[in-house]
Amino acid sequence: MKKSKLMNGIMVPALFALYVYAVFKVILFKFGSIDIPFLWHQLQRNLENPVHIKTRLQLANFVPLESISNNIQGLSSHDLINLFGNIAVFMPYGIFLLLMSNNQRMSLIGVFTRSLGLSLCLECLQVVFSIGSFDVDDLILNVSGGLLGYGVFKFYTKFTVVMLSVIQDRDRTAI
């Protein structure tokens, strides 16, 4: 079996699954353990009494750039981790989407919609399980991270193609 088939067929999807697990663990459980009985209890409680979900939604931030602005003004270590952490956590997502698409043909719009979808799912799960708060700025930062990962990977692949071409041209002229 060729190395590229092994990478694309087994390694990349396995690493992607591990990455998605880590993202769910970090965003939903803040590095704590995944407690299924606790989640089940929270879900049952919220389904039996939707006031809990309503309360969580009242605490949510639906104003774009509000918490980003507050974080920039505060600039504590927690604020910096929130700003750059949300971006950094989603950068690999943009890269993985390209790696797993056919011949890296995923469009910018495709990465945008998938990053938005995953981020929205995570934000909603925080509300449904009462384990965090919904913040539209997290959506903005997460999607920005996915798009930045996409851009970095596209730039890297174009750069390596150009550099290989320059090296091959140099080698041909040296002969």
Features:
single chain, 175 residues, mainly alpha, elongated
- The SSE string, one letter per element, is HHHHHHH
The best one-word shape is: elongated
Report the end-to-end length measured between terminal Cα atoms.
Answer: 34 Å
Overall SS class: mainly alpha
For the report, how would you describe the main beta sheet? none
Radius of gyration: 20 Å
Low-confidence stretches: none
Describe this structure in words.
- The structure is a single chain.
- By secondary structure, this protein is an all-alpha fold.
- It has seven helices and no strands.
- The protein has helices at 3-29, 36-48, 51-58, 66-74, 77-100, 108-128, 136-174.
- The chain is elongated.
- It starts with a helix and ends with a helix.
- The mean pLDDT is 90.
SSE blueprint:
Elements lengths: L2 H27 L6 H13 L2 H8 L7 H9 L2 H24 L7 H21 L7 H39 L1
Short description:
The radius of gyration is 20 Å and the shape is elongated. The mean pLDDT is 90.
